[in-house]
């Protein structure tokens, strides 16, 4: 699984700032049907559902061709407020750290 490992260090600082905004952040899931790994990822996200707005992008649709070209071998892929966050699955520890950082400022 690929994620930003230096949480709230330089590479992930912008993500942390976005997560702590006054409105809920948007977590975008790039997916397609069928995608068993995406289904598993959505289940893992259930405990976090009150902490973000989940937006799903079906990369197999013609209007999402750019995402198909970029992510066809990597789904599920996640962006947080438009910034790449992780791929191949959900890093629960990363989401916990982001939520903790947002809570504690």
TrEMBL record:
Pfam families in alphabetical order: Glrx-like
Keywords recorded for this protein, A-Z: Electron transport, Transport
Listed Gene3D superfamilies: Glutaredoxin (3.40.30.10)
Keyword Lyase among record annotations: no
InterPro entries: Glutaredoxin-like, Glutaredoxin-like_YDR286C, Thioredoxin-like_sf
Family: Belongs to the glutaredoxin family.
Name of this chain's protein: Glutaredoxin-like protein
Organism: Xiphophorus couchianus (Monterrey platyfish)
């Amino acid at each position: 699984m690929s994620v930003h490992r230096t949480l709230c260090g330089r590479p992930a600082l912008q993500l942390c700032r976005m997560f702590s905004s006054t409105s809920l952040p948007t977590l975008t899931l790039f997916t397609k049907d069928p995608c068993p790994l995406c289904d598993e990822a959505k289940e893992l996200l259930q405990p976090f559902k009150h902490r973000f707005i989940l937006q799903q992008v079906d990369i197999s649709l013609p209007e999402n061709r750019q995402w198909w070209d970029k992510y066809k071998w990597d789904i599920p892929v996640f962006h947080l407020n438009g910034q790449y966050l992780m791929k191949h699955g959900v890093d629960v520890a990363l989401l916990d750290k982001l939520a903790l950082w947002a809570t504690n400022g």
